[in-house]
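I have been asked to look over a protein record a colleague put together. The record follows directly below this note.
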Amino acid sequence: MNQNIKLVAVDIDGTIANVLCGVDSAYCQRWTVSQAFFELTGIYYHRLKWVDDLKEVKDRILKFAPTVPEEKTYFYYDMFCERLCGKIEPATSGHGSIDLIVPGCHKASGLKRLMERWRILPEQCAAFGDGGNDIEMLQYCKHSYAMENAPQNVKDVAEHVCPSNEADGVLVTLEKLFT
């Protein structure tokens, strides 16, 4: 699967492939990303739609997700950090994908809302992560697991390291936790 991602990460004419993510759907602009990128992206965004112009989308936008050449991920990440100066927070999410999110609107903030609703404590939760966009969630949950294939900065914040995604690390670890 990693090879497929590399083939479509930089799309038509070598440009950056973009996904606009809203409450109602996620969106790819026609003529700027390939069908292959759209189909791969649909694995992660189940309500993905084609649009003619991202500027015309009428939705509450939560995230903008550019996919850059994987070897240039941190070049773009650093550039976004510098140019966006806290107005939008960049986080890497693997394979050249960078999430540009509203400050404070990360995975841990969503988990916190759910835990409050269900009266669950962070001490009762386990989190698994393999990308920079998982760091806050791993810090928030008491039982945190970085995947073996995660970058070092993700492993540094997790309590444990579990097998990689390719080795079904989440399932293997959950089986150990629940037996």
